[in-house]
């Protein structure tokens, strides 16, 4: 009776875990990570990086930059990032502008330790979008021109990574890295519980056979 009761509890737990995993899976937001570098071709200009992406399902899209002090091989970054987001109809102009951000004290989930790192979180309809990233104090006109001219002659360049969260697809040769969804862990828990229940059931059947 004790084994049968335990098996029943495990079965209930497995079913509950499966429902949790499936339920969260419907609202879980997949994350996509890309890495890049902002450089200075000369002391008066700074490059601008562009990312084209498509929103597949309307909803909240979060763009989180890890830059200031970041190091993935080339030394600490001095990049004080700034983001510009545009709708992308194939011809970029000021009317396509949606949002911009320079500093933000909230985007630390990616490992950032500086409020100088940029962060956007906003509702986007399905469609095509263009993200521009460079050193701070660059303008919409500089985004459209594809190059920034600023006063940061000694710094304002470095490595960075950007995490996109939402149902989006990056275009081009961005070589994104997929970050596991939160629901995946719960799914593994559900399957693990089911496996434990099956093992206990086999042991119970074997015990019954020995008794016979």
Keywords:
212 residues; alpha+beta; Jelly Rolls; 5-stranded antiparallel beta sheet
Number of helices: 3
Fraction of residues in helix: 25-40%
Provide the domain count: 2
State the major sheet. 5 strands, antiparallel
CATH architecture annotation of the largest domain: Sandwich
Tell me the total number of β-strands. 12
Distance between the termini: 17 Å
Q: Uncertain regions: pLDDT < 50 for 5+ in a row?
A: 6-28, 182-212
Give the averaged pLDDT, no decimals.
74
Q: Tell me the name of the CATH class of the largest domain.
A: Mainly Beta
Order of helices and strands: HEEEEEEEEHEEEEH
CATH topology of the largest domain: Jelly Rolls
Which band does the percent of strand residues land in?
Answer: 25-35%
What assembly state would you assign to the polypeptide chains in this entry? Answer: single chain
SSE class: alpha+beta
Strand order of the largest sheet: 7-4-10-1-12
Shape: globular
Radius of gyration, CA atoms, in whole angstroms: 24 Å
